[in-house]
Amino acid sequence: MRDHIPVVVQGSGRRARRAGLAGVLWAAAELTVTVGVVVLLLVVHQVWWTNRQAVAAAQEQVRALESDWARVPDEPGPAEEPAEAVEPVASASSGGEGGGAAPSGPAASAPGRAPAAKPPARDRAYAVLRIPRLGLTVPVAQGIDKRAVLDKGYAGQYPGTAGPGERGNFALAGHRNTHGEPFRYINRLRAGDELIVEVRGRRYTYVVGKVLGETTERDVGVIAPVPRSLVKPEYGYGEPGAYITLTTCTPEYTSKYRLVVWGTLKS
Q: What is the CA radius of gyration of the chain?
């Protein structure tokens, strides 16, 4: 009988290797698409959904404050906590806080002026900031903690700074992007624009005077009782008064620098 000689088909191993490589590439492509979708969903959540949540919650807080004030308009505000050292200019985008020396606490109330309302416990909303030019209405809380205040879409008052209507510097921080981004467009404010602060039974109107487009996160001079930049001393004020300061991050979607808007209390 004739022996059977196996027939070797040329190229079968090569095709198998190609099929294996194609499978690996297909799996890698699927993984890349999956990761991309997850990242996209995270971005949408951070940029869009957190904004919706924070804006809705902040507006509900404004309504709650207004309703409470309407029920008991003449009730004095809660007692003020002991003054704390002023913290450096916070990151209104990331919530970080810079280091460095801090300026002194708030100045005394101006002679002859009605005492300003006392802020409540830390992290609680106690006032409402309105900026007509921007169509902005936002609650104001004590402190600049990221999770407890800023991520709620609130403006946060730097601890140790003056209260609304007081002599000194009523200094606020707010997010530029995400989490309600209340201070996103404060770069559009111009001299003469009004910044209105309402506290139970009281209304204080500040007028924008100066804007510092960019400074470092450690420039604590911008929230001093007499605000003046330590980095750019040509920006700021030289005499005691009743000031308001708005701080946020710049450029947008970063926390590299700080944008600052100053105003003075309208007499």
A: 28
In terms of pTM, does the model score above 0.85? no
pLDDT at residue number 109: 38
Local structure of 165: helix, strand or coil: coil
Handedness of CA 172, 103, 227, 255 (dihedral sign): negative
In the block, which residue shows the tokens 């810079």? 98
Look up tokens 């601890």; give the residue: 159
Cα dihedral: 27, 31, 32, 34 (round 10): 140
Given a cut of 50, whether residue 85 has pLDDT beyond it is no
Give the architecture (CATH level 2) of 50-265: Beta Barrel (2.40)
| Overall size of the chain counted in residues | 267
Is the pLDDT reported for residue 20 higher than 80?
Answer: no
Other CB atoms within 10 A of residue 120 CB:
17
> Catalytic residue numbers?
175, 249, 258
Q: Is the pLDDT of residue 189 over 80?
A: yes
Q: In whole angstroms, give the CA distance from residue 124 to residue 67.
A: 16
